[in-house]
Every structure is written in structure tokens, then in C-alpha cells.
Amino acid sequence: MAKARKDNKGRVLRTGEQYRPKEGRYLYTYLDSRKKRRTIYSVDLMKLREREDEIKRDQLDGIDNYIRGHVTVNQAFDRYMAVKTNLRMTTKTNYELMYNAHVRKGFGERLIGDIKFSDVKKFYQQLVEDDKIKPNTVGTIHCCLHPTFQMAVRDEIIRSNPCNDAYHEMSAELGKNKGVRNALTINQQKAFMDFIDGHPVFDHWSPAFTVLLGTGCRCGEFIGLRWEDIDMENRMISINHALVRAKKSRFNKKERMTVSLPKTEAGIRTIPMLDQVYEAFDRVYKEQCETGFNETEIDGMSGFIFKNEQGNVLSEQNINAAIRRITEAYNMKEEVRAARERREPELLPHFSCHYLRHTFCTRFCENETNLKVIQSVMGHKNIKTTMEVYAECTDEKKKEAMQNLSAKWKDF
Q1: Which family, according to the similarity comment (predicted)?
Q2: CATH second-level architecture of 73-174?
Q3: pTM for the predicted model, two decimal places
């Protein structure tokens, strides 16, 4: 019978284990899934055996420990992007730009097998607290990392996905109001539109902002509207695509506008026209009958309604720049007026195009109680999104409700 091998402390060594006195460390030798000899080392026998047990569990589950020990998060992400063929080009481009900007250096250089749940959660927290990145942006980063790790699980490189619930927990701890995009108040909305209407410089923007505030369209959906999407007789708007700017990346050779189809069925919808929206379209059509229609063609589509000064389709940047110029001009005039009237100025906040969608949704929620109707018009995939907006009562609405209650108090 072979004599059992022992270390310098008299402990019996298992099969595959060795102790090297000159080096003062233990080693364990095994064959990987490719029948290649692999060796791990440790100065502590108990820690070595913890790693041995993990290797044996992984081998029983078909997980290749050697690959896990050599694949970085970056390599796993690049592989995921290479095989994920059903992502739209714009989504792929945005994911890669977001990943390269915030993940590739640092976190992305770590070995995928070393990443734990706490590492992912801490990484997300650092992005928000140290790098001042908005939680919604971290959500996009999560959309890059979670499926990357999930593919590694399915490839049997790691046992479980460390991203599971990491973003959800971080969001919950930050609080539900962290990063909330507020709507314009009723007074702010009225002041903005009243200032544009008839203005010698900004009046030509009136139809565009009327449609944005009167439909709740996403910015890309709005600039992608074509005359064939508008049914003036039945006063209906068909939302079936969007125009987005695809940035330059390895998936896109140059930056350009491209047609983007809705990600979900909820994005394809019809929106009834308000009278003001109908009048806005009617004005644009009559003006273009005299000045000429938009002749831009993008991915085989043409007949786009709104155009810039050069006759091309609008972009989100065009709209945001117009909002900035309008609010700056309004605020300057309001400050002068307030000083003359000896009162505090009521200034418009700085806001972007997406504020207008949220503003419409807020006005809609203030006047409609059927959440399914609101969800359908807004194109929300999840009713939870609609409910969150519905729950965000404006201060004006709260005051109005309390005043109504006060007026009816004697009737109770």
C-alpha cells in the first residue's frame, strides 16, 4: 500500500496536491475540459482546497474554470455584441459608445470569473455618486453588462449572473425621485407657447411645439413624421417609426440619420389629433405648398413633415437648441418686466425636448383616469411607467384638489 504524502505539518495531502518546502507553498494539478494539465498554487492549504472544491464543482457542472480565469469582462462583452444579431444598429452603436465611455477601462479589464454581485452594485453606485452619471444612464450600462454575464452563464463559463438585481437595488436605495424628469407646469407651458406665437423670430417653431406638446411623441417619432402618417380627414396620427442619429462606430462607418423601428408593439400606435394639433399640421401643409416640401430621403423613406432652414429633416439637437434660445429670450424679457413691476420674475426652467413628452403625459394624466388609454397613447411598454407618471401630481393640481375639498367642506 502506497504511503500517504504529507506536508511539513503532518497533514495528509489529497490526490493532485503537493507541498514544496523550498517555495513554502502548495500546488494542485488537474486536467481541464481539454485534457490539458493545469496547476493552481497557494501558501495556505485550506485556501488551496477551497479553490480545489470550486474547480471540482465547476467540472461537475461543465463550467470551464480555465476559461473563466482568463476571460475579461471586455472580451465577454465584445463576444456578446458579435453574436447578438437581433439588436438594431442604433442600439448596438449606443451600447458600444456607452460601454467604451464608462466600462472598458477599469471594470471591463477585470476577469469575468472574479466579479461578484457586490462588485457590480458598487460599480453602479460609483458611477452615480463619483462620476455624477444619471441613474437612467446606469440603466443603459446595466443593459450592456447583464446580458453579457448571462451569456457567460449559458456558455458555462460562470455559475451565476452577478448583475442580477444589482441595478434594481441601487435604484431603490437612491430613491424613486432620483433623476426624475419633471414636466412643465401649466403656467410654464402656457408662457412658453404664448411667447412663441406671433414672435418675429420664433413663430415658425409654433407648429412643431404644438405637435410635441399635443401628442406626447418621442422626439425621434416626431421628426420622423411623414405626410402619409397623417390622416387629416379622420384626425389620426400613425406612429410606426422614428428617426434617430446613428453615431459613428464599428457598426456604423459615419454619423447619419437613420430610420428606427419601434422596439415593441406598444411603440406602434395611433394618436387622435387635438384641434390645436390639426391646425398646426394644416398651417405647415399650406406653408409648404408655397415654399416647397421636404425632399429628404432616409433609408427609402421620404415626405417628412418638419424641416430645418436647409430643407433637411429636423434633429433632436435642432429642437433642443431652439428651446434654449426661446427660454433665454423669454427669461430676459421676463426679468425686465418683473423689475419694472417690482416683483420676482417667473422664469422658465432649462429643459430638453423629452420634457415636452413628459409634460403632455402629465396634462393627460390630470384629465384622464383610464391608465390603459394613457398607456396606449404614450406607447409605454409597461403600465408601471404610466402609473409612475400618473402618481406624480403637480403642485398646482394638489392645490386645486385641496381648494375643491375646502369648497365642499360644508356639504360633508
Answers
A1: Belongs to the 'phage' integrase family.
A2: Orthogonal Bundle (1.10)
A3: 0.65
